[in-house]
């Protein structure tokens, strides 16, 4: 029976029955029945059979399904022992959605799409063998982490590991352009190439001269950033991996760029078709000065990037606007325009209500916390990657005269529920760090030299987390309660500590550090000051109970780590980042990322299938009260949780805010006595609150309308781990 012609199956109907209450209760048993039916009716009859393990691998290699090179690094007897271990762990999916997602999106299939060629442990084995690069101990450790779902590689890594015909293992890219036609042309070519490879592409446009700026001393000749945005949107639409997926990109612009209003207007529903952007995402970089000006209800000046670069000798993005603002205002050689700061703030909020955009990057916050010499100027398609970049220069032959550094994202995620039960938390994180490091070591994006250069110099990775709400509900802790904030802080402190330990070990083994380590806050030890001075371990009895049996580093342990890092360095320039965790969280039977759930039983619209229902993990009469919808929650609670994690994350976190068009009474005190409809003021207040709490970035604003529709729902599949 071909997978294309499945009939007489019952699992979709059984799954849909979850949405039909029985005696006013959710019939969760129907999900188990749907799972069992799916395995029996779909998986078993459509999985290709082999006589033994050797026969299976011979078939996969002979028919060009997997790369023989990585496989031949191991004695076959080891591969057999790895499989014996994995089978002995008796893995089973816990929900219909998990199994369906895996077999629909991740399982290797025959070229004619008639049979599955692997089950979950086959994919785990392939990942473990591939990322271990011939190291048997590491392969066993990774297999252990993945079969117990403590570690989940990013979708591109998990999907493509070991395959002969595959895309890249990396998740997304960041590139920046400077203010000349050669670099703009090269940027558009880079967008085409990176979109073809796969993954979302973030592009910084803040350095481009504004509409009306001079070209070759001709005033008013420049067209500004919007035409470049249109070219990029068309590029992503064209370069779409043979039609398999829509190319995805985001462009970032400074709020102090003169084109900022036109930039935002291009995303509006009623924008002129000549400038309207339908698929390109928007992000704004926001220095501290903007918050100050809006808070004081002052006018703000927008500065010509062309003039600023002439005055300061460096591209606009690399000028500290907060520090130089008054000097730039007083400088008559810099062309500037004046607008009320709060009007621009309201325009940002209006667009967020309408579309969910723009993302917000608090660029000064990011740079204050940045331990690396250099400047963060933008983020990626999901706003969690924040790494330094340097500008390049391109000649008339489209060759790099000065090689800049851009970014590729190598992501993976811990499953909080399962990692908290690890027999050795530190060993688990060490294995994850090494798996991610393999991805960065073997990533070669030759078509975009600046990305390749940045990856070669930085060896950056991004380990994150998923399943926070699952963990809290399972342990009957309210999301946003003090215990939840404290737990989150301790958990990410541990991720920070153990990734530092692992990166230090790799640097010692290889006698190699990331580029310019000697000028980082790690090298002089100052990064560790707060950890040596204060105890970041659990304080309350409840959180101490949650971490019982897990090693918590003391200030003395941090001091030892500091000394080790000063002596031998770090291999990875960046280590931690929390992505949105989309479809892959379903396979892990957990909630996505760190944000709260939307519904106790989530309804997803699957292409060609219809609706599939997914009950919240560990949903029961006991956990039900702790699964409050994000749309019914004070977003300051979500911000507090994310801020607790951000304290220890060297990059950023994809923080989504969930709002209702009609806000429930009592949610926000400033609504008392005023309209219960969401207004721009609500979003303005929440962005300022996030800024004060040290949040580096805000991803989507998702709005649940009175018509029960979602505005700004995340459709990005490129960076969702």
Automatic annotation (TrEMBL):
Membrane-spanning ranges: none
EC code(s) of this entry: 1.17.4.1
EC class (word): oxidoreductase
Residue span, Ribonucleotide reductase large subunit domain: 558-580
Biological processes, Gene Ontology terms: deoxyribonucleotide biosynthetic process
GO MF terms held by the record: ATP binding; ribonucleoside-diphosphate reductase activity, thioredoxin disulfide as acceptor
UniProt keywords, alphabetically: Allosteric enzyme, ATP-binding, Deoxyribonucleotide synthesis, Disulfide bond, Nucleotide-binding, Oxidoreductase
A GO CC term attached to the entry: ribonucleoside-diphosphate reductase complex
Pfam family, one: Ribonuc_red_lgN
InterPro entries: NrdE_NrdA_C (IPR013346), RNR_1b_NrdE (IPR026459), RNR_lg_C (IPR000788), RNR_lsu_N (IPR013509), RNR_N (IPR013554), RNR_R1-su_N (IPR008926), Rrm1 (IPR039718)
Reaction catalyzed: a 2'-deoxyribonucleoside 5'-diphosphate + [thioredoxin]-disulfide + H2O = a ribonucleoside 5'-diphosphate + [thioredoxin]-dithiol
Protein's job: Provides the precursors necessary for DNA synthesis. Catalyzes the biosynthesis of deoxyribonucleotides from the corresponding ribonucleotides.
Family: Belongs to the ribonucleoside diphosphate reductase large chain family.
Protein name: Ribonucleoside-diphosphate reductase
Organism: Paucilactobacillus nenjiangensis
